[in-house]
């Protein structure tokens, strides 16, 4: 039996940028001798970036540019010694360019500048279909698409009725707000829209939003997502992944 290709399959990215240059100050002492993407989630034996590269490969990516910064040599050494499922190029900013400038600098090293690309922050640990997100992006003729997550709040919540009776207690419920999940699909022209220096979330994104060319794609309900910012996040991720059997 022959299977038909999805009509958007040809427009799905095969290249990606991983932003791995942050200081990771809130993850100290783990980041005293390594950059944040090199921190291992307890019980997995693999640094965060190793999980990311595996996920990108599973989603059809063949080439990745890793933007390095803090303790770049540690990350570069690991990438050179590890058996990786994708081709990896590393770039290091000679001087700080800001988030938008750094993203543009890294994107300029992608092997296919005339094709769309994914990007992800180096501290994100997630699993969902990037192919579906790319199709969402193509179907809307977007210039940029952001994955949207609903993180859980760190406190227990209380539900009440209209009279004020407490009706339920809910431990760490998802927030009602969607946030930028740190995973993106970009069309080829997006690279030239980025600032050479500065923050694209204060320049490029607002402009595209005004032009109605910026879209948000919710991460599917039940898909795993967590930003690893603190030691508590590491511990929580370890427990969650153990519960999921990963």
From TrEMBL:
CDD domains: NTP_transferase (cd04181). Gene3D superfamilies: Spore Coat Polysaccharide Biosynthesis Protein SpsA, Chain A (3.90.550.10). Pfam families: NTP_transferase. InterPro entries: Mannose-1P_guanyltransferase (IPR050486), NTP_transferase_dom (IPR005835), Nucleotide-diphossugar_trans (IPR029044). Residues 16-242 form the Nucleotidyl transferase domain. This is Nucleotidyltransferase family protein. It comes from Streptomyces vastus. The lineage of its organism: Bacteria, Bacillati, Actinomycetota, Actinomycetes, Kitasatosporales.
């Amino acid at each position: 039996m022959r299977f038909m290709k999805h009509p958007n399959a040809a427009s799905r990215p095969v290249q990606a940028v991983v932003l791995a240059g942050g200081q990771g100050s809130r993850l100290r002492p783990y980041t005293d001798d390594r950059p944040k993407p090199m921190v291992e989630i307890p019980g997995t034996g693999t640094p965060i970036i190793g999980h990311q590269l595996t996920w990108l490969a599973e989603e059809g990516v063949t080439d990745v540019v890793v933007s390095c910064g803090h303790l770049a040599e540690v990350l570069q050494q690991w990438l050179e010694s590890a058996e990786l499922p994708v081709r990896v190029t590393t770039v290091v900013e000679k001087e700080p360019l800001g988030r938008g400038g750094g993203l543009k600098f890294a994107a300029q090293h992608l092997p296919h500048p005339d094709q769309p690309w994914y990007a992800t922050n180096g501290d994100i640990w997630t699993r969902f279909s990037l192919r579906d997100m790319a199709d969402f992006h193509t179907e809307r003729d977007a210039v940029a698409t952001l994955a949207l997550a609903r993180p859980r709040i760190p406190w227990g919540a209380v539900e009440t009725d209209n009279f004020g009776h407490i009706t339920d207690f809910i431990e760490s419920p998802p927030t009602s707000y969607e946030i930028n999940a740190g995973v993106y699909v970009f069309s080829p022209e997006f690279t030239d829209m980025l600032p050479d220096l500065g923050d694209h979330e204060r320049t490029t994104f607002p402009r595209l939003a005004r032009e109605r060319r910026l879209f948000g794609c919710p991460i599917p309900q039940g898909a795993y997502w967590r930003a690893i910012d603190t030691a508590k996040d590491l511990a929580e991720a370890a427990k969650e992944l153990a519960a999921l059997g990963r």
